[in-house]
Amino acid sequence: MVSRYPEYLDPAKWRRNLALQIEGLDFRVWPDVGKNEDILLVLADFAPPGLFRSLRNLRCICKLGAGMDALFEDPDLPEIVPIVRLQDPTIASQVVEYIVLYVLSRHRHLEIYRRQQLERTWHPIPTRVTSEVIISLLGMGRIGAKAAEIFQRLGFAVKGWSRTAKKIAGVECLFGEGTLTDVIGDADYVICALPLTPETRGICDRRFFEAMKPGAWFINVGRGGHVNEVDLQTALESRQLAGATLDVFSTEPLPKNHPLWAHPKVTITPHVANFWLDGGIDEVAQLYRRLLAGCSPQNVVDKSLGY
Ligand SMILES: NC(=O)c1ccc[n+]([C@@H]2O[C@H](COP(=O)([O-])OP(=O)(O)OC[C@H]3O[C@@H](n4cnc5c(N)ncnc54)[C@H](OP(=O)(O)O)[C@@H]3O)[C@@H](O)[C@H]2O)c1
User: Fold this and answer.
1) Residue 295: which region, alpha, beta or left (left: phi > 0; alpha: psi -120 to 50)?
2) What SS3 state is found at 83?
3) Helix, strand, or coil here: 66?
4) What is the per-residue pLDDT across 150-179, written as a single tens digit (0 to 9) for each?
5) Using CA atoms, how far apart are residues 212 and 162, in angstroms rounded to an integer?
């Protein structure tokens, strides 16, 4: 196992639970990988430079967590070794919980009422009917499509944006670069749930924020690399945006002196939209058994797409 996030992944737990399913398992934790030629399968949440290339008998890399970007950053990623993405639905469900939580909190003015309570003041604020509130989801994959369905069921007007065409009942689905402005132009909430690829890096920039409806709210659960943080601050200060909820940042942990920390219109969480990666243990055991049986892995990522 190769991990740089001890808060999210407990190697001892993985070793214990995998050993219950795989007799004689030899489970090693990077950087103590032992003899490089022994390694058949790597479970990784990132790519230590040059490591994968050095594993001569490596048959598969299994990405722990949703985003593939942390692996594709490695210029030495071996071409012929398949990369598997776990199918555990819990990761997406948790991120959807996060998105719904922050949209509904703002929609129902929770932060304002909390302040009112502390001040012992009583000022009811009208709640807009959901059908008049537009929510746009960028990325209609495991996270975006699920969030879109939930918002649609709550009665919101929902738009979704993806690379290829989608059909989801009650959701206006658009796809391709040319439609981005139509997706974000009239939305009250714009939620980035895209993977970080060469096409999507820096997508939320000055032009993007200027194309959003004045007073809209921006939520990023994708990756920090999607957002030009200086352009975001400019959009917040010019009142183009009412505010932003950010779970991911260009540098993590967010440096102590970063201006976003103190921004009154920004809510920051420390990359916790999903905090559950242990759900993949059974799937990994199955994958390992397939490899031992000489079968090809399932759920292999298309490296040319980068996600
Ligand atoms: N904050 C957290 O804790 C957390 C947790 C999990 C995931 N994430 C982030 O969320 C991302 C999305 O996760 P997911 O599981 O929903 O991914 P996914 O199932 O792979 O879906 C990705 C979606 O993005 C769309 N897309 C990709 N490139 C695009 C482009 N150039 N233009 C328009 N749409 C594009 C895809 O379009 P198609 O459907 O047409 O392919 C797909 O709908 C992950 O990659 C990761 O970075 C963050």
Assistant:
1) beta
2) strand
3) coil
4) 999 999 999 999 999 999 999 999 999 999
5) 18
CA distance 66 to 33: 24
Q: How many Cβ atoms from other residues are within 10 Å of residue 88's Cβ? A: 20
Name residues whose C-beta falls within 8 Å of residue 162's C-beta, 6 or more positions apart in sequence.
Answer: 139, 140, 141, 144, 173, 175
- 226 CB near ligand 1 (under 6 Å): no
Each residue's pLDDT tens digit, 191-231: 999 999 999 999 999 999 999 999 999 999 999 999 999 99
Closest of 250, 193, 198 to residue 222, by C-alpha: 193
What local confidence, expressed as pLDDT, does residue 5 receive? 86
Model confidence, pTM: 0.97
- Read off the tokens for 1: 């196992």
The one-letter code for the residue type at 242 is A
Whether the CB-CB separation of 25 and 18 falls below 8 Å is answered with yes
Tokens at 154, concatenated:
């709550």
| 109 labelled catalytic | no
Q: What is the pLDDT of residues 14-62, one digit of tens each?
A: 999 999 999 999 999 999 999 999 999 999 999 999 999 999 999 999 9
What distance in angstroms lies between residue 75's CA and the mean position of ligand 1's atoms?
22
Helices (H) and strands (E) in the chain, counts: 10, 10
107 in contact with ligand 1, CB cutoff 6 A? no
Q: Is 223 a catalytic residue?
A: yes
The one catalytic residue among 106, 107, 142, 271: 271
